[in-house]
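REVIEWER CHECKLIST
Item 1: Sequence provided? yes
Item 2: Single chain? yes
Item 3: Sequence as submitted:
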Amino acid sequence: MVHAGYIEPGPFSLFGQGFINEVDTFTWPVRVYYEDTDSGGLVYHANYLKFMERARTEWLRRLGFEQRRLHEELGVIFTVRSLDIDYRKPAHFDDALRVSARVTEQRGASLVFEQAIAREQALEDTLVRATVKVACVDAATLKPRAIPETIKTEIANVG
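Item 4: Structure as written out by the authors:
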């Protein structure tokens, strides 16, 4: 079902070797454009990170938080602290992909996401998966800062 650009997660996620029943997994559709590919028509490796960033941003938006407003009103930004990525199979020009994001750990000033990318027509076949640690930092000093309580509450309501 689609609501204002948000595709409600179905009963499955893209983690592990196949689908796992996870209602707390957010998914976002991505189409592979020519600009996303290398000379062989395969998605350039760094672009998978862009696709995952889009899914995390849309996940946050779905919770009711625009990144610009977090910066302007709460004085925080989220930044990638570390990631571990496994490129399993390539995506190709014009593929319709599904990018998933699920919070697996929440600490005072950070979140850990499990993310995966698969083709729409073969969701059980994960192309790329990653563990991404995102830090909440003060927008002015860029030093770690506690995740605002309003965001923590919404994350808890999802899981």
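Item 5: Key structural point noted by reviewer: The chain has one domain: 2-158.
Item 6: Recommendation: ____
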